Amino acid sequence: xxxxxxxxxxxxxxxxxxxxxxxxxxxxxxxxxxxxxxxxxxxxxxxxxxxxxxxxxxxxxxxxxxxxxxxxxxxxxxxxxxxxxxxxxxxxxxxxxxxxxxxxxxxxxxxxxxxxxxxxxxxxxxxxxxxxxxxxxxxxxxxxxxxxxxxxxxxxxxxxxxxxxxxxxxxxxxxxxxxxxxxxxxxxxxxxxxxxxxxxxxxxxxxxxxx
Length: 211
What we know:
Radius of gyration: 21 Å
Helix content: 40-55%
CATH superfamily of the largest domain: Cytochrome c-like domain
Number of strands: 0
Structural class: mainly alpha
CATH topology of the largest domain: Cytochrome Bc1 Complex, Chain D, domain 2
CATH architecture of the largest domain: Orthogonal Bundle
Strand content: under 5%
C-alpha cells in the first residue's frame, strides 16, 4: 500500500512538472520593443500606429490575436503558412514563438491614435451593417463579436476600432475571395462572401472612426 501511494505521488509530481514545462514563459514587452526597433518600425512605427493605410495599426491590438497572426504568417514544419504574405512571411521567418509573444505583448500596451471616418454618408451605411447586420442575407452584426465600440474580445476576436478603412476593406475582400483563410470555422469568409464592394467599404469606413 505504501509503495502504491509513493508511486502515485511520483506520477502526480511528474504530471505537474510536465504541465509547468509546457507553459510558455511570460511575454516580455521590453524584448518585443527591441524586435520592433530592428524589424517592424519601418512599416508599423515604434508605437504601432503605422503611417500608411496599407499597413495595419497594431497599437492596442489584443496580444493573443497578434501572436496568432504572426504564427500564421510563418511556414511551420514544412507546411505552407496559414496566412501567406510575401512581406510578412519573410519578416517572421526567423522569429520564435517567444519572439512573437513578446512583440504582441509590446504592441498591446501601445495607445492607438484616434481617427475619424472621412465619408459620413458611407459610414452611416456601415454603422447599420456593423450594429444590425443584414438579416435578409444572414449577415450577422459585426458588433456581436467585435463589440459595439470595436474593442473586440481578447483571445477570440480582434480589436477593430480605429483601423485604417483601406486595410479593413482589403482584408474583407481577401476573406471573400478566399485569399485569406485563417479564420476559425470560416466565420469571416461566410460573412464577407455575402457583402458587396460598397458594403465592405461602408463597414470599413465606419470602423475607422470607432474608439
